[in-house]
Amino acid sequence: MLNGDEAALKTLLNQYHNYLMVVGMRYLSDKQRVEDVIHDVFADLWNKQKEITIHAGVKSFLRGAVVNKCLAIIRKDSRMVYLEHHNTNIADQVPTAEQNIDRDNLSKTISTVVDGLHDRCREVFILSRYEGKSHKEISEEMGISKKTIENHMTRALKTIKTELKRQELIIIVFIVITMVFQ
After folding, report:
1. What domain range is 77 assigned to?
2. I need a surface site. Which of 42, 94, 103, 161 has the fewest CB within 10 A?
3. 29 in the Ramachandran plot: left (φ > 0), alpha (ψ -120 to 50) or beta?
4. Number of independent structural domains in the chain
5. Which of 100, 155, 85 has its CA nearest to residue 123?
6. pLDDT at 37
Protein backbone atom coordinates (compact mmCIF):
# COMPACT_ATOMS: atom_id res chain seq x y z
CA MET A 1 0.00 0.00 0.00
CA LEU A 2 2.81 2.42 0.84
CA ASN A 3 4.15 1.73 -2.64
CA GLY A 4 0.91 2.83 -4.34
CA ASP A 5 -0.99 -0.48 -4.47
CA GLU A 6 -4.68 0.48 -4.33
CA ALA A 7 -5.75 -3.15 -3.85
CA ALA A 8 -3.59 -3.29 -0.71
CA LEU A 9 -5.37 -0.19 0.61
CA LYS A 10 -8.78 -1.83 0.05
CA THR A 11 -7.55 -4.99 1.76
CA LEU A 12 -6.45 -2.98 4.80
CA LEU A 13 -9.79 -1.19 4.90
CA ASN A 14 -11.73 -4.46 4.74
CA GLN A 15 -9.49 -6.14 7.30
CA TYR A 16 -9.57 -3.36 9.93
CA HIS A 17 -12.90 -1.62 9.25
CA ASN A 18 -14.93 -3.38 11.98
CA TYR A 19 -12.16 -2.99 14.56
CA LEU A 20 -11.81 0.72 13.76
CA MET A 21 -15.60 1.17 13.98
CA VAL A 22 -15.56 -0.23 17.54
CA VAL A 23 -12.65 2.06 18.45
CA GLY A 24 -14.32 5.13 16.92
CA MET A 25 -17.70 4.42 18.51
CA ARG A 26 -16.09 4.58 21.95
CA TYR A 27 -15.33 8.22 21.26
CA LEU A 28 -18.09 9.55 19.01
CA SER A 29 -21.13 7.27 19.47
CA ASP A 30 -22.29 8.24 15.97
CA LYS A 31 -21.90 5.53 13.34
CA GLN A 32 -21.88 7.91 10.36
CA ARG A 33 -19.27 10.19 11.90
CA VAL A 34 -17.05 7.20 12.70
CA GLU A 35 -17.44 5.96 9.11
CA ASP A 36 -16.34 9.40 7.93
CA VAL A 37 -13.36 9.32 10.29
CA ILE A 38 -12.25 5.90 9.02
CA HIS A 39 -12.54 7.01 5.41
CA ASP A 40 -10.61 10.20 6.22
CA VAL A 41 -7.86 8.13 7.84
CA PHE A 42 -7.56 5.90 4.78
CA ALA A 43 -7.69 8.90 2.43
CA ASP A 44 -4.87 10.53 4.41
CA LEU A 45 -2.97 7.25 4.34
CA TRP A 46 -3.30 7.09 0.57
CA ASN A 47 -2.51 10.77 -0.01
CA LYS A 48 0.52 10.79 2.29
CA GLN A 49 1.83 7.30 1.51
CA LYS A 50 5.29 8.59 0.60
CA GLU A 51 5.63 10.47 3.93
CA ILE A 52 4.36 7.76 6.26
CA THR A 53 6.56 5.37 8.15
CA ILE A 54 4.88 2.80 10.38
CA HIS A 55 7.05 1.85 13.35
CA ALA A 56 4.52 -0.22 15.28
CA GLY A 57 2.03 -2.57 13.70
CA VAL A 58 -0.47 -1.42 11.07
CA LYS A 59 -3.36 -2.09 13.47
CA SER A 60 -1.83 0.20 16.14
CA PHE A 61 -1.08 2.86 13.56
CA LEU A 62 -4.66 2.85 12.23
CA ARG A 63 -6.13 2.79 15.75
CA GLY A 64 -4.02 5.83 16.73
CA ALA A 65 -5.06 7.71 13.59
CA VAL A 66 -8.77 7.03 14.25
CA VAL A 67 -8.48 8.00 17.91
CA ASN A 68 -6.68 11.24 17.02
CA LYS A 69 -9.30 12.21 14.45
CA CYS A 70 -12.12 11.40 16.89
CA LEU A 71 -10.48 13.54 19.57
CA ALA A 72 -10.07 16.38 17.09
CA ILE A 73 -13.80 16.19 16.34
CA ILE A 74 -14.64 16.17 20.05
CA ARG A 75 -12.44 19.25 20.62
CA LYS A 76 -14.07 21.03 17.69
CA ASP A 77 -17.56 20.14 18.92
CA SER A 78 -16.67 21.30 22.44
CA ARG A 79 -15.47 24.65 21.11
CA MET A 80 -18.67 25.06 19.12
CA VAL A 81 -20.85 24.26 22.15
CA TYR A 82 -18.80 26.66 24.27
CA LEU A 83 -19.09 29.43 21.68
CA GLU A 84 -22.83 28.90 21.29
CA HIS A 85 -23.30 28.91 25.06
CA HIS A 86 -21.00 31.90 25.50
CA ASN A 87 -22.79 33.90 22.79
CA THR A 88 -26.16 33.04 24.34
CA ASN A 89 -24.92 34.18 27.75
CA ILE A 90 -23.66 37.46 26.30
CA ALA A 91 -27.04 38.09 24.70
CA ASP A 92 -28.75 37.27 28.00
CA GLN A 93 -26.54 39.77 29.82
CA VAL A 94 -27.52 42.79 27.74
CA PRO A 95 -29.76 44.73 30.11
CA THR A 96 -33.27 45.61 29.06
CA ALA A 97 -34.76 49.06 29.59
CA GLU A 98 -36.73 47.66 32.53
CA GLN A 99 -33.55 46.29 34.12
CA ASN A 100 -31.84 49.67 33.64
CA ILE A 101 -34.75 51.41 35.39
CA ASP A 102 -34.62 48.85 38.21
CA ARG A 103 -30.87 49.38 38.57
CA ASP A 104 -31.34 53.16 38.61
CA ASN A 105 -34.06 52.86 41.28
CA LEU A 106 -31.83 50.56 43.31
CA SER A 107 -28.93 53.03 43.07
CA LYS A 108 -31.16 55.91 44.11
CA THR A 109 -32.52 53.95 47.07
CA ILE A 110 -29.03 52.98 48.23
CA SER A 111 -27.81 56.58 47.83
CA THR A 112 -30.75 57.84 49.88
CA VAL A 113 -30.10 55.30 52.63
CA VAL A 114 -26.35 56.07 52.65
CA ASP A 115 -27.08 59.80 52.85
CA GLY A 116 -29.24 59.09 55.93
CA LEU A 117 -26.50 57.21 57.80
CA HIS A 118 -24.61 58.78 60.71
CA ASP A 119 -21.57 60.77 59.55
CA ARG A 120 -18.84 58.26 60.51
CA CYS A 121 -20.87 55.28 59.29
CA ARG A 122 -21.55 57.02 55.94
CA GLU A 123 -17.89 57.98 55.57
CA VAL A 124 -16.71 54.40 56.24
CA PHE A 125 -19.26 52.99 53.79
CA ILE A 126 -18.29 55.43 51.03
CA LEU A 127 -14.58 54.77 51.50
CA SER A 128 -15.15 51.02 51.42
CA ARG A 129 -17.80 50.55 48.75
CA TYR A 130 -17.45 53.56 46.48
CA GLU A 131 -13.71 54.17 46.73
CA GLY A 132 -12.75 50.51 47.11
CA LYS A 133 -10.48 50.97 50.11
CA SER A 134 -9.65 48.10 52.44
CA HIS A 135 -10.55 48.14 56.11
CA LYS A 136 -6.85 48.58 56.90
CA GLU A 137 -6.60 51.64 54.63
CA ILE A 138 -9.75 53.16 56.13
CA SER A 139 -8.46 52.47 59.63
CA GLU A 140 -5.21 54.30 58.90
CA GLU A 141 -6.97 57.20 57.14
CA MET A 142 -9.66 57.75 59.78
CA GLY A 143 -7.64 56.77 62.83
CA ILE A 144 -10.14 54.18 64.06
CA SER A 145 -9.83 50.46 64.66
CA LYS A 146 -10.69 47.81 62.09
CA LYS A 147 -13.34 46.49 64.49
CA THR A 148 -15.04 49.91 64.50
CA ILE A 149 -14.97 49.90 60.70
CA GLU A 150 -16.54 46.43 60.66
CA ASN A 151 -19.27 47.66 63.02
CA HIS A 152 -20.00 50.69 60.81
CA MET A 153 -20.11 48.50 57.68
CA THR A 154 -22.42 45.99 59.37
CA ARG A 155 -24.74 48.80 60.45
CA ALA A 156 -24.73 50.40 56.98
CA LEU A 157 -25.37 47.16 55.13
CA LYS A 158 -28.11 46.14 57.57
CA THR A 159 -29.83 49.53 57.12
CA ILE A 160 -29.63 49.22 53.30
CA LYS A 161 -30.95 45.65 53.40
CA THR A 162 -33.85 46.63 55.67
CA GLU A 163 -34.84 49.51 53.36
CA LEU A 164 -34.67 47.32 50.25
CA LYS A 165 -36.87 44.68 51.91
CA ARG A 166 -39.32 47.40 52.96
CA GLN A 167 -39.52 48.74 49.42
CA GLU A 168 -39.96 45.24 48.02
CA LEU A 169 -42.84 44.72 50.42
CA ILE A 170 -44.39 48.02 49.32
CA ILE A 171 -44.16 46.90 45.67
CA ILE A 172 -45.79 43.54 46.48
CA VAL A 173 -48.62 45.29 48.36
CA PHE A 174 -49.09 47.65 45.39
CA ILE A 175 -49.30 44.73 42.95
CA VAL A 176 -51.82 42.89 45.13
CA ILE A 177 -53.99 46.02 45.53
CA THR A 178 -53.83 46.62 41.78
CA MET A 179 -54.92 43.06 41.07
CA VAL A 180 -57.78 43.20 43.59
CA PHE A 181 -59.22 46.48 42.26
CA GLN A 182 -59.01 45.68 38.54
Report:
1. 6-93
2. 94
3. left
4. 2
5. 155
6. 94
